[in-house]
Amino acid sequence: MKKLLFLLISLATVSSFGQVILSENFGTPAATTAFGSYTTYQSTSPITFSGTGTVRSTSASSGYTGASGGGNAYLGTTGTANQYLQISGLNTSAYTPANINFTFGYWSYNIPTTQMTLQYSTDGTNWTNIAFLNNTVAGWNLVTIPNGTLPASATLSLKFTQPGTTDQFRIDDIKIFNVNPNCLFALGTPTTICNTTTYNIDTYSATIPFTGGTGGTFTITSTSGTVAGDNPSTVASGNIIVNGITEGTSISIHTVGASCDWTLPIPSRDCKPINTLPFYDPFPYAGGYALGSSQEWEYISSGFDITGITPGLTYTGLNTSGNAVTMSGSGNDVMTPFTDQTSGVVYVSFLMQVTSTTGITTFPALTYFAGYTKSTPSYQARLFLNTTSATQYQIGLDANAATTTNLDPTSRNVGDVVLVIMGYDFSTQILKAWINPSNLATFSTTTPTLTSTATTAISDIGGFVLRQDTGLTTPTMTVDEVRIFNNPNFLLTNAQFNEIAGFKVYPNPVTDGKLFVETSINGDKAITIYDTLGKQVLNTTTSATEVNVGNLLSGIYFVKVVEENKTSYAKFIVK
């Protein structure tokens, strides 16, 4: 099942818990992986994972407090029985069973007739069944095992088992933790805020409310950042604040004191700017680079990454540079947000190449792979692929629906490089697509390949999405040269995307290790330099015009400059 597009990017609610014995959310697998071969579990030695199921990214957990999305443990390959997940090496010997909490996220296919078997063992041989309430409604639900169920043991194991050949189960967010009933201190739901939002790597702050202070001396530590705010040793209730956390970094708060031992994980926060138009991304990223990690794009779902690939695509009559990205299967979706557009025409253009249909076993296979969205992700218009055979496909368009029969009758071949331009006119409510237009300079005045009139008017567009559906519907694709613009003339030259007034880069070639980057105001500039393989070789922020490139080897380089949220690009040579 394809994961849902997040309708709102928000901080997941996470309940605080005491001394952690086990906390496992299965990470984000790059592919379906057997339990014994998976290497990115949260939990480490002496805790081990074994069994006959797999870790998958499909049907990501959602709908309950603390649902992590991403990967989950799957038991239920069709035609098999008794698939299981065993977790060994758990140590609860220091705790009273009445204080041991045990919860996990649970998804079951045959609701409510079939129940997964859950057991524990203290010797790895003899197993005791654990009773729990089976799911009564479809989807993910949080199971809470009554306190006192798990014993105090230095050699505790858990086993989740699928009993029948048609049964399917998923498990996620397994938590076992100890809570002292004498502890009156409690942490509330954290909130985060970006300290700055630029094209550089920024920092954010986390605020965690607390109650039950003044019962003793508390020590508060964080895995990253600086702890500040109110002191629960002297204040009954208030806010703990952690400053200076690097964006994209998750942290954990640990509070000890007054019979309390609390740990609170806080999911990472991204601090990425809203792009202005015109926007241009030639994907100057190294092979394997995760597109959602860049400052111009953000993740809006879970799964394996859209990644950099070299070389880039080329197309006659279109200036190109940089590398490209590759996408396929049930991975994550990424969006580049831009300033909300509510009038005129907003265009997006890109190069695409379907490189493989491996994994698609039933033809035709229809899916949408790109589209316009609001600034808070919600699809407004979509581009479709209809894979008709192992070697050919059609492109489709729809202004509102998640499926379509509005397909270009021309069949494209796997391996073809195709230029796609999509434009939405707010005044006419018509969505248009031009596929390989014969004249790039006048494409907007020619008859489009496809049109779709919005039955529900699109009021605003604030993002462009690249979407990965499932391996059964999404072929492997290369995408390159994304441009988003209002004036159709911007299609033709990278130079017209040099928004910064007075932008100059010289000398070219560089012979003495000094590159000069000038603008009209010469303000603070974020300067990033990439080599021809897309590897970042220099990243600095400066108001000076001189950049030291003396450490760079002879060759061709690509420089990106951001000043006051405007972006310019240039190529230069080092000799």
**C-alpha termini separation:** 53 Å
Major sheet attributes:
8 strands, antiparallel
Proportion of helical residues: under 10%
- Which residues form runs of ≥5 with pLDDT under 50? 1-15
Give the amount of beta strand, in percent.
35-45%
Q: In terms of structural class, how would the helical and strand content be classed?
A: mainly beta
What's the count of strands?
42
Q: What is Rg?
A: 27 Å
Shape: globular
Topology, element by element:
Layout: E1 19-24, E2 33-34, E3 48-51, E4 54-56, E5 72-75, E6 84-90, E7 100-108, E8 117-121, E9 128-129, E10 141-145, E11 156-161, E12 169-178, E13 186-187, E14 191-194, E15 203-211, E16 219-222, E17 226-229, E18 238-246, E19 251-257, E20 260-266, E21 279-281, E22 298-299, E23 307-309, E24 324-327, E25 334-341, E26 345-356, E27 365-373, E28 379-387, E29 392-398, E30 412-413, E31 418-425, E32 430-435, E33 450-453, E34 461-466, E35 476-485, E36 504-506, E37 514-518, E38 525-531, E39 536-542, E40 546-548, E41 555-563, E42 566-574
Antiparallel strand pairs: 1-12, 2-4, 3-6, 4-5, 5-12, 6-11, 7-10, 7-12, 8-9, 8-11, 13-15, 14-15, 15-18, 16-19, 17-18, 19-20, 21-35, 22-25, 23-24, 24-35, 25-34, 26-31, 26-35, 27-28, 27-34, 28-29, 29-30, 31-32, 32-33, 36-37, 37-40, 38-39, 38-41, 41-42
Features:
single chain; globular; 0% helix; 575 residues; seven-stranded antiparallel beta sheet; mainly beta; eight-stranded antiparallel beta sheet; disordered N terminus
